[in-house]
Amino acid sequence: QVQLQESGGGLVQAGGSLRLSCAASGRTIRNYAMGWFRQAPGKEREFVAGISWTGGTTDYVDFLKGRFTISRDNDKNLVYMQMNSLKPEDTAVYYCAAHLSVRSYIPTTSGEYERWGQGTQVTVSS
Fold it and tell me: What mean pLDDT do residues 78-91 have?
C-alpha cells in the first residue's frame, strides 16, 4: 500500500505563495493518478487539482485555474502543488490522495481515491 505524507503548509500573507509536497512511500506512485483536495472549517472536502499517472494530463477546479499548478516526479515518488496569489479563502487543510489508474482519467470526487495523507494546514492572512 502506498502511504502519503504532505508538507509545505504554513502561514502566508494574501498574495503570497506556497509549494506543497506529497511524499509517497511503500510503493511507487507510477500507477496512480494523484490529487489534491482541501477542506476548510465547516465545509466539505473539495477537489483542487489532479494529475494523471504520467503527468501528461492535469485537471483543476475552475476557480483555481491559473493560480495553482500540480506536478509530479515519479522517480522521486513526489507530487507537488505550487500555489500562487493566495487568498484568505484558500485557508484550509490540504490533502494529497492517490487513485490506482494507468489511464488519463483524473477523478474529482474524494470517494474515488483509495489512499490519503494526513493533511497540511494552509493559512492565508489578509
Answer: 97
